[in-house]
Amino acid sequence: MSVLIFAELEEGAIKKSSLEAIYYGSKVAEQTGTTATALVLGEGSTDELAKAGRFGATEVLHASDARLNEGNALAYASVVAEAANQEGANIIVLAKSSLADSMAARLAGKLKAGLAANVIELPDLSGGFRVKRSIFTGKAFAITELTAEKKILAIKKNTITPEETDATAPVEAFSPVLNDTDFVVKVTNVEKATGDILLPEADLVVSAGRGLKGPENWGIVEDLAKALHAATACSKPVSDLDWRPHHEHVGQTGIKISPNLYIACGISGAIQHLAGVNSSKVIVVINKDAEAPFFKSADYGIVGDVFDVLPRLTKAVKEL
Amino acid sequence: MKILVCVTSVPDTITKITLTDNNTKLNKAGVQFITGPYDDYALSRAVELKEQQGGTVTVLNVGEADAEPVIRKCLAIGADDAIRVNAEPTDAYFVAEQIAAVARENSYDLILMGRESIDYNGGQVHGIVGEMLGIPSISPVMKLDIEGSTAKITREIEGGHEDLEAGLPLVLGCQEPIAEWKIPNMRGIMTARTKKLTVVEPAGKDTLTQISSYELPPARGACKMIPAEEAETLIRLLRTEAKVI
Ligand SMILES: Cc1cc2nc3c(=O)[nH]c(=O)nc-3n(C[C@H](O)[C@H](O)[C@H](O)COP(=O)(O)OP(=O)(O)OC[C@H]3O[C@@H](n4cnc5c(N)ncnc54)[C@H](O)[C@@H]3O)c2cc1C
Ligand SMILES: Cc1cc2nc3c(=O)[nH]c(=O)nc-3n(C[C@H](O)[C@H](O)[C@H](O)COP(=O)(O)OP(=O)(O)OC[C@H]3O[C@@H](n4cnc5c(N)ncnc54)[C@H](O)[C@@H]3O)c2cc1C
């Protein structure tokens, strides 16, 4: 018996969201009186694996097979299922991500496990196993009981604030069976912005909308983002118009984010936009129209012209 | 090519969510139901593929009779026929079981879904169905072309995208910009009335989850306005008051 946590690697390092999942999983293990095993797939350094222990794992399973270096949802699901069986784990925890979401769905099918996506709190074990999950893209929450023996919890960013200790966890090599049938989808090309902060992982996000007038004006958005070490995002029309790449589009039909800080520049605040960002901790709105609906959902607001305000904010950040 | 498109009937994206029955039910009064926006993308691409390459498009919904207007709209957009599994869709595994049962009976080349429902945001039905059928599932798909029995796919990843190739059959969770949303025209609406909508009874009854109650998010506090000429103050407040930078 153990809580199994899927710890995702990104360029050889455990993702920040996965460290949060490890910490969350260790708390669930405490609640259920068991241990927390972190599962790491693909090649990763000893230093990276040690992090899992510092964030609460009591054991680390490491499958270092190079075939697992590339995130492959089908193969990962098989491997996680095998690890869950080996560990007798009935509870599997993971942080939502493009890869983990696809993996978790396959895993739910394999294990006939109840999967709760967008979990935002620790489970409530007083009478059944209940989790609170965000539904309607953050417009409501559903208290959901997981009635199956096997349970998968996909947690949303900022569900818990992890604490790092100097604890260590033994690393055990894990050699799962890899099936060729899990490698039938061929990756022919990958295009990925390098060096940028990944939007779903970012603590701080600077986002801009049609108020920026054109792609040539994005420099002022990027400058503020760079000064803050923030990721950049945009509204749907901006990606529809190809001013910005689609993976920056947030909202109902785009990426859903929950950073500590979301700064919206020249975005009106349509309900479909809000849906993707309303679980941010702090929202700042900069819009020249005092009547823009976004101000109703903001914590701080500036009625002003982005072309004047943004460069001044960047300067103020640099002077901090 | 035989394509199955799975669609949800969900509250319009502009709906303000309210609760009834002691917070155990969503209040449906006055709510406009629409096809899930991601399902709409899936359907639009399916119809485009049919127009280019021939074949059939079947729409499938697991839901009660009140979902039929949404199903008819899908027929008006260009699907050839529809199946409704007559059941309250109360759990993703249950829904997946129904879809897999229909798929086993009719062997489709492509099963297209939305990347996620916009009501429960599970993002899991495509993966579970793929697993049940023993075929690959891929999501979120932003581009799809079919060449013979091979699918060429672009999938969104964090910070970019990847190009994939896989043989049919496949289950795909779709998102923009896979196709332009299609709007039904008058002729489509007329012909949709006579297209076949088959109602079948559910195949299994396994549910693995159960919603006990709902909650609404707490309202945000009042917005603190900062005069534009003192914009720099914001940065100080974010550090000392909000403590986020
Ligand atoms: C089914 C559906 C799904 C959708 N999904 C999404 C989604 O996922 N994400 C999303 O974003 N939208 C989505 N939309 C679209 C949404 O309804 C809005 O149309 C969109 O969010 C508006 O984008 P915007 O705020 O950038 O542009 P606009 O609404 O045009 O707003 C521009 C704003 O910039 C301000 N402005 C202009 N110039 C300046 C300046 N110099 N300085 C400061 N402010 C300035 C204006 O006052 C205005 O408020 C969806 C719509 C539908 C129907
Ligand atoms: C009255 C009521 C009670 C409910 N109670 C519960 C509950 O107790 N526990 C719980 O987990 N959920 C409950 N639900 C939610 C419901 O079960 C969801 O439809 C189901 O869980 C799938 O949602 P998802 O967000 O996981 O789908 P996703 O995996 O996000 O959907 C992905 C895609 O799968 C396809 N799809 C999803 N659902 C259907 C469908 N019904 N028909 C055809 N295609 C579909 C669509 O293409 C969709 O875009 C309830 C719903 C209703 C109406």
Textual characterization of the structure:
The complex is a heterodimer of chains A (320) and B (245). Chain A is of the alpha/beta class. Chain A is built from 8 helices and 17 strands. Chain A has helices at residues 16-32, 46-54, 73-87, 98-111, 219-228, 236-240, 271-277, 306-318, and strands at 2-7, 9-10, 13-14, 35-41, 59-63, 91-95, 114-119, 130-135, 140-146, 151-155, 171-173, 186-192, 204-208, 231-234, 261-265, 282-287, 300-303. Chain A has a 7-stranded parallel beta sheet with strand order 7-10-6-1-4-5-11, with helices on both faces. Chain A has a 5-stranded parallel beta sheet with strand order 14-13-15-16-17. A two-stranded antiparallel sheet of chain A has the order 2-3. In chain A, helix 5 (219-228) runs parallel beside helix 8. With 245 residues, chain B is of the alpha/beta class. Helix content of chain B is 27%, strand content 32%. In chain B, the strands form 3 sheets. A 9-stranded mixed beta sheet of chain B has the order 11-10-9-12-8-1-6-7-13, sandwiched between helices. A two-stranded antiparallel ribbon of chain B has the order 2-5. In chain B, helix 2 crosses helix 5 (186-192). The longest helix of chain B is centred in the N-terminal third of the chain and has 17 residues, at 37-53. Chain B is globular, with a radius of gyration of 21 Å. Chain B starts with a strand and ends in a 5-residue tail after the last helix. The chains are: A alpha/beta (320), B alpha/beta (245). The complex binds flavin-adenine dinucleotide (2 copies). One flavin-adenine dinucleotide (FAD) binds at residues 209-211, 235-238, 251-254, 266-268, 270, 272-273, 276, 287-289, 292, 305-307 of chain A.
